[in-house]
Please model this.
Amino acid sequence: MITFILPGYSTKNKEWLEECAKSISSEGYVRPIFWDHWDDPDQKFDPKEKADLISRHSKGDKINIIAKSIGTYVAALIIEQIPHQINKVIICGIPLNDIDEGRKEEVKKSIESLDNEKIVCFQNENDPHGSYPEVKTFLSNEIKIVSKDRADHDYPFFEEFNNYLTS
Model:
């Protein structure tokens, strides 16, 4: 089992990624994904390319995904490519206010294609990139969405992530 951690776009997410990786204790191994543009601003961020690379590196193993912000879009693309390998998915901070309608529909279709037992969404009540009420309206009622009483785009709920992955 591989647990891939897909952070948000900004370099501010590097700390979240590292903290999340240290905190996760799922079976198998944890693979934090560092975006190339963090170290080289000339690198173009291509979500499809990242999803293709991660899908290939999974080598047929069962996988967990923890994704934050733009990482939720990359996660959706991975789910489309290798749905049979998905064990559990945690998405947090879906950036509804930052992605175009086409990408929103891709995310929705992919997320809703999973068995509801395999996915949970954490969304801060007043996340400036997409609030809990907006995400609740966006996703199917069958998907568990956990509201957090915060007004930011930070998702430090590592203990809850662990509890979900090990349940």
Observations:
- The chain has a mean pLDDT of 94.
- DSSP finds six helices and six strands in the chain.
- Helices lie at 13-23, 47-57, 70-81, 101-113, 132-138, 158-166.
